[in-house]
UniProtKB/TrEMBL annotation:
Methyltransferase type domain segment(s): 61-148
Keyword S-adenosyl-L-methionine: no
Protein name: Methyltransferase domain-containing protein
Organism: Streptomyces daliensis
Keywords annotated in UniProt: Methyltransferase, Transferase
Entries under PANTHER family matching the protein: 2-METHOXY-6-POLYPRENYL-1,4-BENZOQUINOL METHYLASE, MITOCHONDRIAL, METHYLTRANSFERASE
Domain of life: Bacteria
Stretch forming the signal peptide: none
């Protein structure tokens, strides 16, 4: 992928958008997460994280914990761990198991070497200074501690990107409309090892490929609508593009029986 324009980075990391809209509640995040119900194979991501933390004792901090999906599972499956949630958005922490803190990944309010593992799951791409946040993760974990990051590949859900461009093109009356914003591009699976490698010697990457097949447009439309916080960044009327995408999807499903999306996410387990 070529370098992204500065406006893209500014939009994906914009604090007012993140805390005031995109993650002011867990609604949009839940809509994105729920698309994976139609994925084959299905991955139990919280279960994978639990397995990686089985040998860890003490405290785990979940940086950018969002709606607390991982914290709930860790509390349930590894009750001896002390799990602390941290997010820049106060609103999304509503309902997340305590203790939680409102804080920025670039300036963690934790003492050096005070936690045994840190999670940064699908969140580093939203941080303004990614190397600074990775340094902070390295600072707060003990020398034997691990950091687990996750993100998506640059190739993830390419069919959704093409669908958006086609719908946007039809709205604007051009062959191919502008691309939609890519949330994970700044810290994609392809870029993550080099960025994490500046702080950690060992990086074990685990790829999680799959295919989503939907037989009604709704799950895909809900996923597209979850980008509403960035509607103004799309250079095309957002609702009109969604309406066109729905029509294209309906037609495709009527003719082919399903709409298929190829997915590639991954987890990176880092240690010194
Ligand atoms: C895509 S969600 C991921 C949530 C959760 N980790 C998961 O995987 O389900 C990204 C989360 O990171 C948070 N976030 C974004 N920038 C942050 C920052 N600089 N420091 C802490 N949290 C941040 C957002 O508020 C949001 O809750």
């Amino acid at each position: 992928m070529t370098d992204l324009p500065a406006e893209h980075d500014a939009a994906v990391t914009n604090r007012a958008i993140l805390t005031g809209s995109a993650y002011s509640t867990g609604r949009d995040l839940a809509a994105r997460q729920s698309l994976y119900r139609w994925q084959t194979p299905r991955y139990d991501l919280p279960g994978i994280i639990v397995d990686r933390l089985r040998q860890v004792r003490g405290t785990v901090v979940d940086v950018g914990c969002g709606n607390g999906k991982f914290i709930s599972r860790l509390n349930q499956d590894l009750p001896d761990l002390r799990v602390v949630g941290l997010d820049v958005s106060l609103g999304i922490l509503d309902g997340v198991p305590r203790p939680v803190m409102v804080a920025d990944a670039e300036r963690l309010p934790l003492r050096t070497g005070s936690v045994n593992a840190a999670l940064a799951l699908h969140m580093l791409y939203h941080v303004q200074d990614i190397p600074a946040a990775i340094k902070e993760l390295g600072r707060v974990v003990t020398a034997e501690g691990i950091v687990i990051a996750s993100t998506n590949s640059d190739r993830d859900k390419a069919e959704l990107d093409r669908l958006w461009e086609r719908a946007a093109g039809e709205v604007l009356g051009v062959d191919r409309g502008p691309s939609r914003i890519s949330l994970s591009a700044r810290f994609s699976l392809e870029k993550a090892p080099a960025l994490l490698g500046a702080e950690f010697r060992e990086i074990e990457a685990m790829e999680l490929p799959g295919t989503i097949a939907v037989r009604t447009p709704e799950p895909v439309i809900a996923h597209m609508e979850s980008y509403r916080a960035w509607a103004d960044q799309h250079d095309v009327p957002f609702d009109a593009t969604i309406a066109r995408a729905r029509a294209i999807l309906t037609d495709h499903i009527d003719r082919c029986g399903a709409f298929r999306i190829s997915c590639l996410g991954g987890i990176l387990v880092c240690s010194r």
